[in-house]
Amino acid sequence: MRRLLAVTAVTTVLLAGVACSTDRPDAGPAGAAAAGAGATGATSGAGAGAAGGNAPEVCAAARRASGAAVRTYVEELGRMMAAVGANDGTAAEAARKRAEEALTGWRTALEQQSARADDPQLRTLLSDIATEVGAMGTDLDSIDETELDRLQQRLDQLCVR
């Protein structure tokens, strides 16, 4: 029962972060002006405003990769837990491998976007998120939900639309 609650908690945190960063409406002229103003303010203080340069493209690619990976990861964790509950070791192991592959793909995509980013804050943040994702596994106790949430909030600040 404890594991089921942990899966539910992790799922909520991961999906909330992806939903927050992918379900925003496209910015109109007012949003573009606000993003531009934030980009100029970003140089005045650490973590202030939106990232500059190619941030919109990098952020969009990172959001797509995160959304797909989180969905796959959560689905496979659910399958793994169901298989463990049904005493099906083969299915549990297959689901565990697919969940780990989703994490590897997510980490790789974040590293690629970090390398592409012109903005140094965005580059560092994507690298930090990739490191955190790399530390995750299928052991629910290994997932630092607080750190993931903090990194997601920083990404939301830098990737304003």
Rg value: 17 Å
Low-confidence parts lasting 5 or more residues at pLDDT below 50? 18-47
Total domain count: 1
What's the shape?
elongated
Q: Which structural class should the secondary elements be placed in?
A: mainly alpha
- Strand proportion, as a percent range, falls in under 5%
Distance between the termini: 40 Å
Question: Main sheet, how many strands, which sense, barrel?
Answer: none
Total helical segments: 6
In percent, how helical is the residue content? over 70%
User: What is the number of strand segments?
Assistant: 0
Average of the residue pLDDT scores: 75
H/E topology pattern: HHHHHH
Keywords: Signal
Walkthrough of the structure:
Residues 24-50 are annotated as: Disordered. Keywords: Signal. Residues 1-21 form the signal peptide. Residues 27-43 have a biased composition (Low complexity). This protein is an all-alpha fold. The chain has one domain (2-16, 56-158). The protein is 76% helix and 0% strand. The chain contains six helices and no strands. It is elongated and about 50 Å long. The protein starts with a helix and ends with a helix.
